[in-house]
Amino acid sequence: MHSTVFIAGWLLGLASLAAAFVSPDSTGRLPAMGWNSWNEYECNINEDVFITVARQLVALGLKDLGYQYVNIDDCWSDKKQRRNTSTNKLIPDAQKFPRGIIHTAELVHSMGLKLGIYSDAGTDTCGGYAGSLGYEEVDAATFSKWGIDYLKYDNCNVPSEWADEYEYTPEGPGSNAPTGYDWGTSNTAKRYRAMGDALQRQNRTIQYSLCAWGHAHVEQWGNTTGHSWRMWGDIMPAWKGKEKWSWGLMPIVNQASLFWESTDFGGHNDWDMLEVGNGDLTLEENRSHFALWCAFKSPLIIGTPLDTMRESILVILSNRELIDFNQDPVYGASAMPYKWGNERPAGTSDMEHPAAFWVGTSIKGIHIFLLNTQDTSVQMRAVFAEIPPLQAAANDEYLVHDMWTGKDLGTFKEYFELEVKTHDTAALRITMVDGKHPNVSWSPK
Ligand SMILES: *[C@@H]1O[C@H](CO)[C@@H](O)[C@H](O)[C@H]1NC(C)=O
Ligand SMILES: *[C@@H]1O[C@H](CO)[C@@H](O)[C@H](O)[C@H]1NC(C)=O
Ligand SMILES: *[C@@H]1O[C@H](CO)[C@@H](O)[C@H](O)[C@H]1NC(C)=O
Ligand SMILES: *[C@@H]1O[C@H](CO)[C@@H](O)[C@H](O)[C@H]1NC(C)=O
Ligand SMILES: *[C@@H]1O[C@H](CO)[C@@H](O)[C@H](O)[C@H]1NC(C)=O
């Protein structure tokens, strides 16, 4: 009898140990910050690109702000030879990385930064290079030996025997899975778990970024499998709309309005890499993109070249108050929409006008983010009685602080109102008049 109880307790212990993908050194507890080559360079990469970026991260002060991962995306391996025929190890492209990935890792590490790499949970990467499906163990060991610190694991070229029994894609029409179906048992989850398990068997902490595009409800099993998970198709540097498999900012913000709850310490919805500085976003759109990705606690992975970056872009990416919100050590949840705006009920899905009024919390106070999705400037009003953490004391006087400028805007009763330019996002911190936190016990979830 005693031993049965003991065994049951032991099994339970094992189950809870297996529950979350936790790195002992707390890697992945907070959203990752760094840089990735894809948005700007696609396949035109080589060692110089990454060394230059590493130097710039240091020189521009971005490393000191927390941007530490230098991430190699697709197209780094030898497209023809693929793997060593006797060891099965991936072979780096000798033109692009003449001294091997190991040498790039050494250089990046010597600057106090970390190196990320890319692979795919299929036979081939999206660019047609060797994928890791069936080679998880050897690839995880190779990455570990090279000194890799971060793996972005993509979802292209899945062979038919690995197709999911039930399909779910976030942009699609829903799924035919029975109610209560455990998406953690899907083949997609199994493909991602195989690599996660292999990574955890290595003698090295490798941050694991699941690039699963929201498929098979990755937000339901991502936290047991990796540190972050992509929630939607690829981002593109446009305000709204879609081109092939890439989407503008507003459809992604819409999905974040509906799925903000699946983020917390150690496990983050990834709303994709930053397009700040790319394409033809306006200044206000660049600002909204950064402020919202900080508010959502998404990984902050810069996707623009750093050596030619304009000062106005550096100013956005360097906003310490927004970064501090994203990296808060005490409150792990994403900001939540507290009002949709435009007279729409909570939960309305709208790819052009997603939720506009957001609230989150940090050690410094309550933060609100007011997004203007309209094509003209509008007055936006934060009514204290509508903001959940302030509701019970809505008649108090509050100090409102502008996170963009770092300046206090004054003290206000009942509401605060300001003009928000078209497609801009106001980022405000609210405290008591003496600067104290208005509600330390509140969190969005
Ligand atoms: C394959 O690996 C073996 C054993 O490490 C090595 O001797 C050989 O040179 C490698 N071949 C290629 C093409 O890299
Ligand atoms: C694991 O890594 C540590 C630190 O880098 C090293 O000292 C140790 O020898 C490694 N162990 C194995 C089995 O590779
Ligand atoms: C992920 O797991 C960690 C560790 O168990 C837990 O603290 C955190 O709240 C989880 N995150 C989510 C989003 O469920
Ligand atoms: C915002 O970024 C875009 C690239 O997306 C750039 O063309 C634009 O000039 C930026 N705005 C400012 C003011 O720097
Ligand atoms: C602070 O938040 C808690 C928990 O959500 C809530 O019960 C309480 O009423 C809030 N206090 C104020 C002053 O709004």
From TrEMBL:
Keyword flag Hydrolase: yes
Cellular component GO terms held in the UniProt record: extracellular region
Subcellular location as annotated: Secreted
Alpha galactosidase C-terminal domain residues: 354-430
Protein keywords: Disulfide bond, Glycoprotein, Glycosidase, Hydrolase, Secreted, Signal
Range of residues in the leader sequence: 1-20
Catalytic activity: Hydrolysis of terminal, non-reducing alpha-D-galactose residues in alpha-D-galactosides, including galactose oligosaccharides, galactomannans and galactolipids
Enzyme class: hydrolase
Keyword Hydrolase (UniProt): yes
Gene Ontology BP terms: carbohydrate metabolic process
Record-listed E.C. numbers: 3.2.1.22
Gene Ontology MF terms: alpha-galactosidase activity
Coiled coil regions, renumbered to chain: none
Function: Hydrolyzes a variety of simple alpha-D-galactoside as well as more complex molecules such as oligosaccharides and polysaccharides.
Similarity annotation: Belongs to the glycosyl hydrolase 27 family.
The protein, known as: Alpha-galactosidase
Lineage: Eukaryota, Fungi, Dikarya, Ascomycota, Pezizomycotina
